[in-house]
Amino acid sequence: MLKRFLALAALAGPALAQPITPAEQARIDALVTTTLADTRVPSASIALVRDGRLVLAKAYGKASPTLPVARPDFPYQIASNSKQFTAMALLLLEDEGKLDLDDKVSKHLPGISGGDRIALRQLLSHTAGLQDYWPQDYLIAAMKAPVAPSGILDRWAKKPLDYAPGTRWQYSNTGYVVAGLVVEKVAGEPLMSFLKRRIFAPLGMNPVQIDDSNAPAFPAGHHRYALGPVRVAKPPARGWLFAAGELSMTAADLARWNIARINRSLLPADDWAAQEAPVHLADGTTNGYGLGVASGTEGGRRFINHGGESVGFLSQNTVYPDQRAAIVVLTNADFSRATDTLTEGLAEILMGPAAAPAASPEPDRAADARALFDALAAGRPDRRLLTANLNDYFDATALGDYRASLAPLGPATSIVALGVPQLRGGFVRRRYRVTAGGRTLGISTFAEPGASGRWEQFIVSPD
């Protein structure tokens, strides 16, 4: 571990600038341990960059039933944080003159719906119109069997487009599977091989393919049904994440990438800028998403970030370019807001208090969400209101945990909608904060479009 840490320090510079003080370390330790205890997330691995240099890489908690102590050299699944690497692979191939991001998909990969109208950059910016094959925050039935990327494309990328390319934004893992196959075809080598050669080896990063990390030597993912017991999660079968979320790595490895971004090193500066630039729709609007990362301003600070979720894992990676700072938070649980809580708290410790956030407008269907919450607490949801996937999710174990943990709280006394609805995978995503029995809980939902669309996801967790 000492050699690994020294290697990280050497990458960052001759010395660590403004190292974490003992008082800051005490605050960090208290924040992480308290958050893990409050949420029952088994472990977290964090890495902090200050002044463009790594100043802390530390792990807390229990990595798995057979790895009782989490260590900072354990790779955690970063899932969709992998997208920025897939996107950068296409930018590098463009530098080599092997493709143009304005090329149509059909030039490189035939058989994709709308492939003669979808530009490669639209795959990377989630504006292609391809339906997302995994918008849910749980393991859907199809993912219990292995799949090849071609199998994902046959089932989802050959459906009619959800909208005309470039006219709307809708997060799509499917688009990144297409992008990964384009990289492999144009580069003439596997995506992982290309990334190792061009990015990981030069930066001293040692990621693992996510399917290979579903093994006893690695941290185990965990799941929780409502406030029920924390359970080891069953991972998906092989092949489901590919270019949309193919990587596991340490928090320090991801920090190396962040340092390169801050310093505009390793790769051409215009590639970094192109990745971070918000993509605009045909009507001129943007939500801040670029090519595999989002950018914006929050709390008075400009940020570049992305989150990631695989079955049993959540990650959050945030870079603050003006402060030359970055925060990596990796957890082995797919429930609670622990990654957000830790990122926000660590940012305050690293950079000071943020400005107050702006108020969010209120979305609809809060009353429907409250009714389903109460029905699940009673163990009697109306299954006609649930899609086939959500009915499969609420098996005897899940429904039993929901009833056993929520019933003692009694009916919901209040529910508040958070943020605005977002379209994803053909569904509308909404989030709520609900109070019951003196407890404050979070609800993450997807539903079919319309005022009475069936629920595709309804996940209750500690807020």
Description:
The protein is α+β, with helices and mostly antiparallel strands and 463 residues long. It has a domain of 97 residues: Nuclear Transport Factor 2, Chain: A (Roll). Helices cover 34% and strands 21% of the residues. The chain has 15 helices and 15 strands. The protein has a 6-stranded antiparallel β-sheet with strand order 2-1-11-10-9-8, with helices on both faces. Strands 12-13-14-15 form a 4-stranded antiparallel β-sheet. Helix 3 runs parallel beside helix 7 and helix 6 packs across helix 7. The longest helix is centred in the N-terminal third of the chain and has 18 residues. The chain is globular. The two termini are 35 Å apart. 48% of the residues are buried. The N terminus is likely disordered.
